[in-house]
Amino acid sequence: MKKNTNTTFWLVIFALLFTSPLRSDGLTEAEFEELRNILIPPQKESWKTIPWNLNLLKAQAKAGAERKPIFIWAMNGHPMACV
User: Fold this and answer.
1) Which of 66, 67, 68, 79 stands 20 to 30 A from 35 (CA)?
2) Torsions phi, psi for 9 (to 5 deg)
3) How far is the CA of 30 from the CAs of 26, 33, 37, 69, in angstroms?
């Protein structure tokens, strides 16, 4: 996340946590749309352009045929480091 987006994200979370219970009327449609637009990530993110492959055997065959390396992302535990 960019620093600007990260700051915006935490401001929205803070606002939701500390102001929502005080309101009995809920969000207006305009407020909902504003929050939705802030929280949904943009469609054109650079990691989405990478041709990810979840099948290791197919990835090895393709990499071998194209004589390219393989980047493997492997981990043990919870993705949020809550182990």
Assistant:
1) 79
2) -55, -50
3) 12, 5, 11, 48
Cα distances (Å, whole numbers) of residue 26 to 16, 33, 42, 46? 11, 13, 26, 36
pLDDT higher at 62 or 44: 62
| Domain spans of the chain, in order of start | 3-66
In 3D space, the residue among 9, 3, 14, 10 whose CA is nearest the CA of residue 37 turns out to be 9
Q: Provide Rg for the chain, Cα atoms.
A: 20
Backbone conformation region of residue 67, classed left if phi is above 0, alpha if psi is from -120 to 50, else beta: left
Could you say which DSSP state residue 15 is in?
H
pTM of the model: 0.38
- Taking the CA atoms of 56, 58, 59 and 63 in sequence, report the sign of the dihedral they define: positive
